[in-house]
Amino acid sequence: MPTITGTTQLLGVIGYPVKHSLSPVMHNAAITDMGVDFVYLPWPVAPSDLPTAIAGFAAIGVRGFSITIPHKQAIMPLLSEISPVAQAVGAVNTVWRTPTGWAGTNTDVEGFLAPLKGGDRPWHQTLAVILGCGGAARAVVAGLAQLGCAKICVVGRNLDKLQAFQTSWQDSPWPVNLSVHDWSELPQLLPQAGLLVNSTPVGMSPDVGHSPVTPDLLATLPQGAIAYDLIYTPSPTEFLRQAQAVGLLAIDGSEMLVQQGAAALQIWLDRPVPIDIMGQALRQHLRG
């Protein structure tokens, strides 16, 4: 932990609950390594207390904060400035103080993209399949649109939610070739897919041992395809374990967690941050 003095500046994360957050582990490791006079704290804020808490943060000079469930949408009317990417996603996860009030953006998109950048994969020819149509899927769609994916197929079980999801992207700032599909269509989609992303909570601790798709379905993905699970605990999830068993490339959510946190810390401190230190602290914590 950083040394706290009378001049230490405050950063933190708000959510309800928030005690499960691993952000303090990563951010305080980076802060200590950088030798800056900051500390990053978890702040439980009930939904009914959100406006009061934000006003209090301004009063005591909080530099910035992260946002987790259930405040990512509720925070938006309380901000004076929202980035285009956060507007597109419809959620904010990072807030900082400006002379005119609070500003917000969404670094989940940058975090999601980080493990996919580099290399020579032809994204402009790639069909991506996303399992789930909740808030996490929105950041994935925004990222894949920026990456230039040829087609994005969002798969879910609730037709009304799927249709609402598709409609919400009609005014996107990026070209999005998006279609929505019932879960029963997976056998037709997966043999064409170069990327399969799990944005559902299936397989997340403590509900381990479950996968959103069967091994037989995973085996229909082309060789060289990527299976990406936004879940980071356990590692690997059953979904990724099965994906590796059939020869797919596997990415878990820990890299996204570290990269989105690093992007936020860089905004607050306005300088490069030690991403490797953040990742090391996270992995060490997860190993117990």
From TrEMBL:
Source taxon at top rank: Bacteria
Q: List keywords of the entry alphabetically.
A: Amino-acid biosynthesis, Aromatic amino acid biosynthesis, NADP, Oxidoreductase
GO biological process per UniProt = amino acid biosynthetic process; aromatic amino acid family biosynthetic process; chorismate biosynthetic process; shikimate metabolic process
Q: Reply yes or no: does the keyword Phosphoprotein apply.
A: no
Q: Where is the Shikimate dehydrogenase substrate binding N-terminal domain?
A: 13-95
Question: Could you tell me which InterPro entries the record lists for this protein?
Answer: Aminoacid_DH-like_N_sf (IPR046346), NAD(P)-bd_dom_sf (IPR036291), SDH_C (IPR041121), Shikimate_DH (IPR011342), Shikimate_DH-bd_N (IPR013708), Shikimate_DH_fam (IPR022893)
What enzyme class is recorded for this protein?
A: oxidoreductase
Q: Which residues form the active site?
A: 72 (proton acceptor)
The record's GO CC annotations read: cytosol
Every copy of the SDH C-terminal domain together lies at 253-283
Keyword Oxidoreductase recorded: yes
Annotated GO MF terms: NADP binding; shikimate 3-dehydrogenase (NADP+) activity
Q: Which residues lie in coiled coils?
A: none
Catalytic activity, EC? 1.1.1.25
Q: One short Pfam family name for this protein?
A: Shikimate_dh_N
Give the pathway listed in the UniProt entry for this protein: Metabolic intermediate biosynthesis; chorismate biosynthesis; chorismate from D-erythrose 4-phosphate and phosphoenolpyruvate: step 4/7
Binding-site residues for shikimate, renumbered to this chain: 21-23, 68, 93, 108, 232, 260
**What chemistry does it catalyse, as a reaction equation?**
shikimate + NADP(+) = 3-dehydroshikimate + NADPH + H(+)
Q: State its role.
A: Involved in the biosynthesis of the chorismate, which leads to the biosynthesis of aromatic amino acids. Catalyzes the reversible NADPH linked reduction of 3-dehydroshikimate (DHSA) to yield shikimate (SA).
Q: Which HAMAP family match?
A: Shikimate_DH_AroE
Q: How does it assemble?
A: Homodimer.
Family note: Belongs to the shikimate dehydrogenase family.
The name of this protein is: Shikimate dehydrogenase (NADP(+))
Report the gene name.
aroE
